[in-house]
């Protein structure tokens, strides 16, 4: 019994304490105080409740609060200043001294420049009747709505959002260069050991917004270089790097910036959350990547995936509900009005869908949701300017194509059954034709190219194996017709608006697909249904166009063009139908199949070269007669020497997409 009384007393005590806590008034929610940047840098206490704080007000300093601010030690500051001063003196001397005679300015009109040492595509002959019949009336060129201006859109009913103070002036070649009232740069900028003067920064910004920006209008042309740098240094240097691709005053600047800006990008990624401008910088680097000679160094797919994730982390996929992802105290991360957030989210999906198309991935990177559908419409708060809105509509079609052709879980490659595949292709193509009729009066020359690229992407699925021979043959010829029309439009656009010199990476990858389709049909039994001379001219124009996209020696564009050209020279015409060894990369399978065949030919050529070794295994390899190449080629075409004299292996292909032989064999090749 004594134990029972003790227990009753302890229980009563606990109950009384619980009741007391319940009656106690709840505390106010804890408010996190953030010191201003000036006090944090000096390691001093900050009365951040007032704005400005007492210390900044007393010393006349700018009082700013930034949750992402990190204190920089004086030693690191001094080290950076020492590095910059050594190069700023040299840069200032170059800026003050006039450029030597004969050095063209980066802003010189295209018509006034000396022609580049690249062969001009020949005038394309008209397509044959057989080719035209394969595509019907759609093979005829869609009339060009604009002859000289790919940006302005006559007859647009809706008004673009925040067009800004712009007056367009046409530069040689038909490129519309916006003359914005952009404030000039006021500070010299440096990254690592590279410094740029004020004149260089202004010239590079004018080059970017005059020639590159119109192809993908994501950024604000009215912002000054200093504003871009203050908001996001990565975006500032990304703009500088893209403009350096065709910066004639310093041709080496692009390769110099490549390592530093890429390192800055990864450093920015490693410190989340990312600012919305950092997301835009990653997208711009995916659209105009640094030149690379190895597939391992291409970070476009990684940057695209990171940009999508960072955009969702910021709540860009819900433009009207930014407060649900970041509170008002962290507005630095949720910055940007609704149109900017919608535009950035749309750009994420456009770039992601292009990556999916050209790498042969399933549609897991992009996210075409409710906000994307509203952005494709007009007359609502989510509507985009027409130049970007049509681009988004086209990529929404590509997203539907990818999902339809990779969603069959009962097939190892995700492809639908044969009958279902042809039905889906016909339905999707009907929708593309309907969209073309709806937007035809509003489309620019560039829009037509993107629309035909979508049509070609759909028709690529005719190349997959099928027991329906007649339907497959008709579909492959339709794909050939789409490729022929597409390269014709690209050549016309390049003559009108200098497309290839400043085009995004999308155009190069598109040309790789066009060249693969033309090669497949012309080297197969289906060549009897097309004009061989016209097809050869189209193929040569494709190779020439790919080389005009090159910005560095032996970059991806140049190597891809060399591979397709060499493959066409060493491949004899067969009586077999075009087939695919690689079928695990959706629409990109046709180009990867060409790479696979090129690798086989290279291995065969190396094996044939090894037969020249002394059978006894001793002594030097006999020297080949330099004048006997033609005789050997006539006697045994498969043993003809490789004119590219490649010393690099298959893993060192400088191609825009990763190509792993082992992974393909593991996934299964039909």
TrEMBL record:
Q: Name one Pfam family in it.
A: Zn_clus
Please name the CDD domains in this protein's record. fungal_TF_MHR (cd12148), GAL4 (cd00067)
- Per UniProt, the ranges with Basic and acidic residues bias are 16-31
Q: What is its main location?
A: nucleus
Cross-referenced Gene3D superfamilies: Zn(2)-C6 fungal-type DNA-binding domain
Question: For this UniProt entry, which segments traverse the membrane?
Answer: none
**Stored InterPro entries:** prtT, XnlR_reg_dom, Zn2-C6_fun-type_DNA-bd_sf, Zn2Cys6_DnaBD
Positions of region (Disordered): 1-31, 92-134, 607-633
The record's Gene Ontology cellular component field reads: nucleus
Quote the subcellular location field of this record.
Answer: Nucleus
One GO BP annotation here? DNA-templated transcription
Q: Which domain of life is it from?
A: Eukaryota
- Zn(2)-C6 fungal-type domain boundaries: 35-63
Q: Which UniProt keywords apply?
A: DNA-binding, Metal-binding, Nucleus, Transcription, Transcription regulation
Q: Which PROSITE patterns match?
A: ZN2_CY6_FUNGAL_1, ZN2_CY6_FUNGAL_2
Give this protein's Gene Ontology molecular function annotations. DNA-binding transcription factor activity, RNA polymerase II-specific; transcription cis-regulatory region binding; zinc ion binding
Q: What is this protein called?
A: Zn(2)-C6 fungal-type domain-containing protein
